[in-house]
Amino acid sequence: SQPMLLHAMGDGTAEHISFWGMPLLLGALYKALNETSPKWGVLSGLISIMVALDSPYLAVYSLTASLFIVPWYLFKKRSLADRIQLYWTIGAISAITLIGGIGIGLIYQFFPIKTMLASEKISLLTMNATDLRTWWQHDVQESFIRDSSLPPTTLSSFVLLIAISLLILGLPKSLPWALAGCFMFVLSLGLNDRVPVHLGQWLGNYGKEFGSLLIDLNRTLYTAPALGLIRFPQRWLVPAFLMLLCGAGIGAQRLFGFKLIKQYALPLCFAVTALGTFSSIRSSRLDLNFPYQELPQVEFTKYLANHAQEGGVLLLPQMRPPPKS
Questions:
Q1: Among positive and negative, which fits the CA dihedral 214, 17, 104, 181?
Q2: Residue from 172, 34, 228, 230 nearest 239 by CA
Q3: How many angstroms separate the CA atoms of 97 and 99, rounded?
């Protein structure tokens, strides 16, 4: 998904470039619960361990998505044999995940994370939050001025409109994916105190009150142990849009179930993909001031590079102008 992908490339946030684990885990969970298969339950537990080892961010994203998606497939009519299989499946997932979680927790003890002050955490949750005006500004205006030190992180309204339309078509099966996506989008707002102002300008007093309610909700949610690990709220845009796309996939499956449309399924997919790609390029405007930063010339690094023996590895951090730095 497009939001934050370019940002990840610029900042070196590998969690949002290597995003393979979460879709794989969600797919395995779907197979395990929908088919009540203990084998897929075991596989889901093993994948969850790999995801947590790969990135704490992906572990938090997957856990949050599971809270909405897993219950949807639990509470449905089943025969006695299916219920027994379901219990074995849930037991396999829970046991392997619990054992892996304890092991990963012990491993993380060797890599303690520096505790932030409350003021520092509030600053991060406020400064790195989603701006509700981003899509409108980047899609409507023919040209705009943006911070050239940062990559564009916008999402095309055309792609969003197609995803939401297919998601609505997929109701009620797509409902848990829609709820998960909306919840993650709310989390991406962080503690942005401009949200009530913007909603108030668009929707009046009701919008302002609703915006204040969202920020107060986030203020409570970000005190939770897992959600508190996400220091940059804007990163929630990536899994949020992934949830919307999964729901859209359910709608597309229903759409292609019609005989008249089914025979044109492949060219329609190519056409929508092409339109979405061109629309995303236009909305992100990669041609306007793409971030460019010169690496510093350090003399001893040249010495290390030209030395006959093996030398140390030097990591050069990317420095950005305030307030982003």
A1: positive
A2: 230
A3: 6
**d(C-alpha 211, C-alpha 303), whole Å:** 56
What does each of the 325 residues of the chain score in pLDDT, given as a tens digit? 344 455 555 455 555 666 778 888 888 888 888 888 889 999 999 998 988 888 788 888 888 998 898 888 777 777 888 888 888 888 888 899 899 888 888 887 776 666 667 777 777 788 778 877 765 454 444 554 545 444 444 566 777 888 889 999 999 889 999 999 999 989 988 888 888 988 898 888 999 999 999 999 999 998 888 888 787 888 888 888 888 888 998 898 888 888 888 888 888 888 888 887 777 766 666 555 555 556 667 777 777 777 777 766 555 544 554 544 4
What's the whole-model pTM score? Answer: 0.76
Residue type present at position 228: G
Instruction: Count other Cβ atoms within 10 Å, centred on residue 1.
Output: 19
CB atoms within 10 A of CB 285: 17
At which residue do the structure tokens 């305030």 appear?
322
Backbone φ and ψ for 103, nearest 5 degrees, come out as -65, -45
Q: Where are the alpha helices (DSSP H) in 256-296?
A: 259-262, 265-284
Helix ranges (H only) for 128-236 are 134-140, 157-169, 175-188, 195-203, 205-221
CA dihedral 317, 130, 2, 7 (to 10 degrees): -10
Query: Quick check: 158 and 297 in contact, CB under 8 A?
Result: no
Rounded to whole angstroms, how far apart are CA atoms 240 and 146?
24
Integer CA distances (angstroms), 4 to 41, 82, 134, 230, in order: 31, 41, 13, 14
Surface-to-core class of residue 11, CB atoms within 10 Å of its CB (0-12 exposed, 13-18 middle, 19+ buried) = middle
